[in-house]
Amino acid sequence: SGRRNWNAARDLQRYRHQYPGLRESENEEEEEMWNLSFYKNEICFLPQGLHIETLLESWWDNYEVLEENHSYIQWLFPLREHGMNWRARPLTCQEIQAFKKSKEVMQRFIRAYQLMLRFYGIVLINEETGELERAENWAERFQNLNRFGHNNLRITRILKCLGEMGYEHYQVHLVKFFLTETLVKETLPNVKRSALDYFLFTIRSKQKRRELVYYAWQHFRPRDSFVWGPHDKLLKYRARSTKSQLHQKAEDKQKSPGKKCDDSVEKNQNQSLEEEQKAGDAADLQPKVNDEGVKEKLSECVSKGENGEEEKEASFTQQEEKDLKSETEEGQGTAENDCTKESKKRKLDANMAGTEKSGLLRSPTDIENISRNLGECAI
């Protein structure tokens, strides 16, 4: 539609701020914690459900049941809000603390997460970091995701629950995965809108959320239609990231001054580019900066207005542009200047040594004699 879903924005803002105004009973006993009891394998999910151990084992490859049953998802990933299944109980702060204290419960929670990832065609390849990749049957599972939109609501619930249980780093990887598949690889067109309106804004860390918004803006087409963040603010955030990168490079250079310069300036420039590529993620916030890139981004993004965004800041002034370019030139040029001087010096020394060795041009008298012999020829 070209407009942001502001109902989604308000819902996610309330979630990120820990549900302001929500009151919970402070005297609940452990046996009254329904979600915890379910995860302890003491009760079945309702209505007409199973114990969690049975569910995790028997439904591992049963994609048809996982698709058609709509009761289990609110028990596997409880939230501090009511859902469509009124037999499920909202999660409480006391339950969250009890979940985190139980190793057995948290192991089941990770298994439940892996179960749903498998259903969506995704594999958790690192339980410590939360890193993900496509499953072998991803094409079939992606087709199911594109067909049944209610799974987008389930994914939003999963992301929220990950945040409640202390797995915010898992959130970041899952959101990045869907942004890549929808915006870069374009394999999930029917998930794209949910990824931007909902998934993206479940991230409670402002820094990580900004990085993901910037990543989405980089790959959204047409870029001037991106409505999930003010363009001028996104541009400023990119500039700040670049400045910090340059400062870090300067510090690294000061810490290791003993390194020799290359004989060739061109070789040094190639190494500098390789270091920049290794410094950050393949598609994240620290792209290489040059004069043309700065001008292009400024002309492309600052000139575009932003309607109805939550926050707006002033665009770059000309002085800020000059400062950014000067810092860029300084950061990229320092090593090149040093190496250029050293390279020229070495070449001059080599030439002098060669001429001395060959016995040519030994004295000013030699030069005069050669000049007279050449006659009218110019030297």
From TrEMBL:
Residues 240-364 are annotated as: Disordered. InterPro entries: OGF_rcpt, OGFr. Residues 248-266, 289-299, 319-328 have a biased composition (Basic and acidic residues). One of its GO terms (cellular component) is membrane. One of its GO terms (molecular function) is opioid growth factor receptor activity. It comes from the Eukaryota. Residues 29-234 form the Opioid growth factor receptor (OGFr) conserved domain. Keywords: Receptor. Belongs to the opioid growth factor receptor family. This is Opioid growth factor receptor. It comes from Balearica regulorum gibbericeps (East African grey crowned-crane). The lineage of its organism: Eukaryota, Metazoa, Chordata, Craniata, Vertebrata.
